[in-house]
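Morning. Coffee machine broken again, so started the prediction first thing and wrote up yesterday's gels while waiting. Chain of 405 residues, entered below exactly as on the submission form.
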Amino acid sequence: MNLSPPSGSRCGLDTVEIPRMERLLANQTAEELGKLFSAQELNDAGNGPGRAASLAARFAAKEACCKLFPRETALGLISAVDFSVERDAYGAPVVKVTPAAQTVLDRHRVAAIRVSLTHTDTSASAIAWADPRQTDVPWYGRWLYHLLPYRRSVVLGNFRRVFGDVLPEAEIMKLAQAYYAHYVRFMIEFFRLPFMSQARRKEWVRVENIEAALRAHAKGKGILLLTGHFGNFEVSTVAGIGQFPQYRGLLHFVRRPLKPKLLNDFVTHRFKRAGFGVIPKRGSLDTILDLLGRGAIIVYVFDQHAGKGDGITVDFFGHPAGTFKSVALLALTTGAPVLPAYGWREADGRHVLRFEEELPLIEHENVGEAIRLNTRAYNAVLERMLLRHPEQWIWMHRRWKTPPH
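Came back before lunch.
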């Protein structure tokens, strides 16, 4: 078997003494073991004489995975329990990760972690390889980046702010070029959508986990739908939600007016024609409260800069950013569930609109602190969604302006 890591990957290695694992198994309860190993890991290890060696090898693999990301491990962003080692259909070890670990992998542009396990009579060892994710840049992305570099300095500055401490400059440049390619496709799709039949739209956009929205809406308090400028957000919302006629008239988008006015009128007409309401960001609190009381779904595009009157300062990718406080305030006041949703374009050109599970409401005796904690939690969700397909976000936007105080 060839154990050489692929070119460009990073490696982590760890060893665990089997007698140490035997002592752990003898002294820990099943509940305590469940905090170190997943249920599947414990099941795969069995209850026979090889149980200690098997779990020792798995724990060595967990530690080896952490060594791939020493900074995040030292900061406590991930730990051994964020990784589990299970078997695939052929019995080979496969690494599963928690959402926290997946965020770290995505930020480092790691496509997958592979492990190899071995043990002797006294010790178990594991090596972990992190395979880099490849960034494919179409020719028109490179062309636009070099010849029509609209806001290129802003785009590169934003990419460096998010990825500068984990990716080389060459990879950041490739991501920027891939973003320009996404921008070209975005505009073509935007003007193509009105001429598509309903059947073609349904083939073009797949909706995932709509059950989460149904469960949240069944609570009878309306929904605060948290999203951002991910993928082709105009296409995925109009063509995706359009597949569910029961939501017609229930969705209302809180939007800033677009410039020029002609474009704003075009987008607003398209949304209203699809059965969506459009609410201005300013002066609409009473309208939103009334709509929530009637079970409406209020869609907040949450990834833009918020000025002093509308926002508070919370971190976005580790940097202070003015962020809208309205979603947290409404959630705390009305009890309406907050549900994240985002879209992306797949390699075959089709789009996905995915609903995530409802976010838990963070309570605090100080209302201002409750707003801050919930708003930071919303930014963290947007970070995870952005990192899955970073080239499909609006990097031209000045997200980190001077934040409000």
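The first helix runs from residue 18 to 27. Going to sketch it on the whiteboard this afternoon.
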